[in-house]
Q: What sequence folds into this?
């Protein structure tokens, strides 16, 4: 079957670093995506990994290990505005078609002053 | 920001009534999607479209139908709404690669009483 696991909730302090993990089991793999979703708003794209390794984009970095079925999103220099849910999604090329993503339930990140 | 709008933003309806949600894009993207988002679940795909009059089912399509008569419009219809269809509905669009980097509309909060 398919499954994507993320922690339900995490708390971190403003200015610190936090790592949000995502593990997945899918029958095929064709890329992993991270999205940010503020409460009451739509998800917005953060990052995309298809090869193993680290992708850095400003304060945010995303890592992928395909052999371990594992990814993490690393947020540095946390700001209050980073309080949001972070969604992990895998494009499963073995699914009904190549047009769909399998989504985790999201990790709610709470930033404290 | 991608030009994608959903209407209505909020709707309250009664069990058994038909409901239509509209998604309109100005990006001329080929792919359009309807998702629902419920607490404790990842985003779940209802239906998607890969061109005018080309649509297919997602993982939770029962009780829903869609139509795409123009590139810019993708309609989601609940033929006879049930309380289990109370949810937040998101429309999303993507360009060439058919899924992955999605741009979402602002969502529709639907309550079925």
A:
């Amino acid at each position: 079957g398919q499954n994507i696991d993320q922690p339900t909730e995490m708390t971190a302090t403003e200015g610190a670093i936090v790592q949000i993990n995502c593990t997945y089991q899918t029958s095929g793999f064709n890329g992993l995506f991270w999205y940010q979703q503020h409460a009451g708003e739509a998800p917005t794209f953060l990052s995309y990994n298809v090869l193993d390794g680290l992708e850095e984009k400003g304060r945010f970095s995303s890592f992928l290990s395909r052999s371990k079925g594992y990814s993490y999103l690393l947020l540095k220099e946390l700001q209050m505005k980073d309080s949001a849910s972070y969604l992990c999604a895998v494009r499963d090329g073995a699914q009904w078609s190549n047009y769909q993503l399998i989504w985790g339930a999201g990790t709610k990140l709470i930033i404290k002053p | 920001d991608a030009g994608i709008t959903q209407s209505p933003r909020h709707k309250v309806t009664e069990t058994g009534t038909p409901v239509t949600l509209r998604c309109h894009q100005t990006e001329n993207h080929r792919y359009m999607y309807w998702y629902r988002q419920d607490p404790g679940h990842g985003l779940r795909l209802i239906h998607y479209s890969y061109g005018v009059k080309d649509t297919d089912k997602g993982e939770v399509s029962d009780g829903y139908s869609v139509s795409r008569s123009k590139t810019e419009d993708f309609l989601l219809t609940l033929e006879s709404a049930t309380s289990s269809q109370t949810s937040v509905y998101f429309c999303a669009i993507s360009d060439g690669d058919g899924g992955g980097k999605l741009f979402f509309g602002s969502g529709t909060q639907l309550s079925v009483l």
User: Anything to note?
Assistant: DSSP finds no helices and eleven strands in chain B. Chain B has a mean pLDDT of 93.
